[in-house]
Amino acid sequence: MNPIKLVGIFLIVAGGLGLAYGGFSYPKETTALKLGTLELKVQETKTVNVPLILSGGSVVLGIFLLAFSRK
Q: Residue 13's CB: how many other CB atoms inside 10 A?
């Protein structure tokens, strides 16, 4: 399979996931307090929002790559 087609498929899938979910979350561990050898760690959940224009543009670019890639 052509590498350009693979990139196009990846962009369509990633854009579709961005449109469906709108973002993703991940845990981040930080040190809240440090006294000598004693450490207090806190686990926070960070959220990353994916803009709709970026997701839509990814889908459109993926479709463009699939439609106009050379055989």
A: 13
Q: How far apart (Å, rounded) are the C-alpha atoms in residues 8 and 42?
A: 40
Amino acid at 52: L
Please say whether the dihedral angle defined by the alpha carbons of residues 53, 54, 59 and 60, taken in this order, is positive or negative: positive
Domain spans of the chain, in order of start: 3-68
Q: Cβ(47)–Cβ(67) under 8 Å?
A: no
Q: Convert the pLDDT of each residue in 2-38 to its tens digit.
A: 899 999 999 999 999 999 999 899 999 998 899 988 9
Write down the pTM of the prediction: 0.73
Token readout for 63 is 């479709």
Distance from chain centroid for Cα 15 = 9
